[in-house]
Description:
heterotrimer; B: alpha+beta; three-stranded antiparallel β-sheet; 40% helix; C: 15 helices
Amino acid sequence: MANIISDETIDYVGILAKLELSPGEKEEAKKDMGRMLDYVDMLNELDTSGVEPMSHVFPVNNVFRDDVVTNGDDRDNITANAPQKKDGAFMVPKTFV
Amino acid sequence: MKEYETVIGLEVHVELATKTKIFCGCSTAFGGAPNTHTCPVCTGMPGSLPVLNKQVVEYAMAVGLATNCEITRNCKFDRKNYFYPDNPQNYQISQLYYPICRDGHVDIEVNGTKKSIGIHEIHMEEDAGKLIHDEWEDCSLVDFNRSGVPLIEIVSEPDMRSAEEVIAYLEKLRMTIQYLGASDCKMQEGSMRADVNISVREAGAAQFGTRTEMKNLNSFKSIARAIEGEKNRQIELIESGKKVVQETRRWDDAKETSYAMRSKEDAQDYRYFPEPDLVPVVISDEWIEKIRSRQPEFREEKMARYKEEFGLPDYDAEIITGTKKLADIFEAATAICGKPKKVSNWLMVETMRILKEKEMDPEDITFSPENLAKLVNLADAGTINSTAAKEVFEAVFNDNVDPDKYVEEHGMKQVNDEGALREAIEQVIASNPQSVEDYRNGKEKAIGFLVGQTMKVMKGKANPAMVNQILKELL
Amino acid sequence: MDLMSLTAVELGRKIKAKEVTVEEAVLAAFEQIESKESELNCYVTITKEAALSKAKEIQEKIDNGTLNGPLAGVPVAVKDNMCTTGVLTTCSSKILENFVPTFTAEAVLNLEKAGAVILGKTNMDEFAMGSTTETSHYGATKNPWNTKHVPGGSSGGSAAAVAANECSFALGSDTGGSIRQPSSYCGVTGMKPTYGTVSRYGLIAYGSSLDQIGPIAKDVTDCATILEAIASYDPKDSTSIKRDDYDFTSALVDDVKGMRIGIPKDYMIEGLSPEVKEAIMNAAHLLEQKGAVVEEFDLSLVQYAIPAYYVIACAEASSNLARFDGVKYGYRTPEYNELHEMYKRTRSEGFGPEVKRRIMLGSFVLSSGYYDAYYLKALRTKALIKQAFDKAFEKYDVILGPVAPTTAPEIGSSLSDPIKMYLGDIYTISVNLAGLPGISVPGGFDSNGLPIGVQMIGNCFEEKKIIRAAYAFEQSMNAAGKN
């Protein structure tokens, strides 16, 4: 395998993605990611110099809304699925120390 | 100790004055109960999609043109990925690769020295929600009313060298944006916020030192204090042989100190990539010209015009054009009453006095130009005397009262009726023989006392000029 | 009369002619669901009560003439990644085990307007990540042709439900083949429209630049009819495209005379099952007999689509799935001491292994230092792939090829080797990268009696050409008694 994924990389990506892997999952993830990246490295065979990266397939642009209020108070619906709420707000573990 | 130079760059966030949020039709109005101005889009509901508010693009273009920027013809949005509860999708839609404006500058003046501050870029993005700490439950509560409110972030070049320059730059930006009507730029309410990047280096050094980013600055005063504090902290580190660490610090204005906002969960790796849910914004020459043609008259032009058209003195013109709010009131009131110098006087003297007394900004003024114009007319026509006028003005300032009605209701009309005045004066003369005697003996000052007594009898409403005249005649 | 073996259009016609009531049709669907569900597990949620009350409402509208479209009263199943007001929408994930949307996806609204009656929400690979419907948190779906085999994925529940007559038709979504491949494995007809043709509003995103909703049905006529109903310009979806032609059923003509059809030589790779290859050649032969001009050509870049796709799809997914954090909706871990622990536990417990694998890869390729090498490289490759298709469509009206290299694999044989599983997407993935329309039509069976699908790919906005080719091919197959 050309791409060796370290424990540090898996931990780092775990912090970015907010995923906590068990030791077993970590080993799996290292192996899987290494293999996937080896596979993805196939793209290096392609000469893409001078090719503009294409994020949208079609040249659609300038899609806008007018600045007009269309929404009213929909709080009950918006908070209907909240795991924890209080006074119409979503409740989370404290963010200040 | 060696001599050091402070190098400062600013990231200024400005909330735009649109009626709706950047990607949905929710109101941007302040002050609703938590989550009452929200919808699936601005709360990150699964399946929801953003649609760009055209007014946001036009405001951003207008600010870019006013700050001499190049407008990006093909500008795009990117996602900035990070987890935080006030960020409902856990990514913020922003611009990294193709921001709408680039390479601008604004000119400032500090202590008579002119300087140009470069603007690296201006980009559009969405604001986050608000977190409120709940003491009772020892948790935080998330309110998404501000989530999705449009912002522009104005990123300067590291061109500033002192707190004075920073304040001058911010004041210039604020004035420009207010003149455009793109934002009210109230720092206290958070519609204008500044993050300050600071580094220090030995005077004359070619390389920049390591910079830190200071957040949570919500007034010009705290910015100035934070710059001073951070400069000293960095110099002390260097002097003691330590290194400045590149980090984000939070300013505590009450303690006048800052602390590092570091956490192992905060990797500062935002994984930006092009936002697939939004299409590019392609800006044509025609569109730019349209925005340019709508640009308002800015301060310099206004000042010149006020002097030319209304004959205002330099000083008046400078103060009144100092904020868009004052200039707007001045122009509207003058248009109604046609007495520019009198309107200017009310703004320059009484308005400024009360603002200072109440520690308010001109943006906080709530009275209408119509009522100011009415007051000017009442005073000018002699319907009320100057003492009464000041009292009426206070009422106009505080409660935007209609001066005509107020004067009527409070019986404040100046008495110009010669018969009534004569009667009152005769009474005053009769009951103050000593003063009359003094005056007749050449004590000119005694007449002042007699005028005062007459005003007292007339409950302050007497026409002072007429009182003077009649008194002299009767004595 | 077995109402559920009728096509959607046939059933709609009978309802319109008052030969069948909407209630009878809906009850027939539930009877079939009740007899088959324990074996197949096509649905995550069944909404019988709502469907029956809706049936009455629709019947009234049909009776008073306000509803007279071809799908009025026809029972439909909706993939569980499309939001439905008041009805659980799970994406077959634990993390959305209790999520009840407060709005309905635009495509589903369009179906409701057409008078279709929703029976329930179908099973899928978790967040549409998979090719077998085995990654569902709610158990695998079985292939109705042989329950030892997978139905394909990720719209496996929808395809199996159509094949097993547990609905008259279904909606699926296709990010890398998720409509066409299960349609192929289940012997039904499924179509992925041109990107932007059906609104994505209310579709829970996997890869936003690739996702597209489309029909899974019993034949080409149904597909065209359903697409006509669900396609619309939607101002709520900035990538929605205003088209001139929504009259897809006008292309239902048995005529391919002079139509130029290309078969990519580079599709005939090692790993392509001989029986599948034979089915494609048979399709080419049948179309040629009807006057089409068929030839082989070099499409190029075929093998590069898979790595490019996995980089782009996983990157977008890592961001799209960040919102599932236990704050606003869905599952939250019961035990945590602070915020980041809450996030990590919620997401680690709420997502299954395949989803985590793709989020990890997607986060990595976007992370500092790797963006250019992986993500931009993939976007450049995508541009080249689009160019290759543009070139091909200068010469051909339709590209003909397999949907998948093999017929449906056995349950449990795919997940152990992700790369091998991803390789199975080789014929479908490039269509999503280039935003093209593609259809999978039944093209016979292999020696084990499992269905084989034939894929027809059109240039963007040229659904009508592939509908015409697919319809002509279907007629030939019917005439030959092969379907």
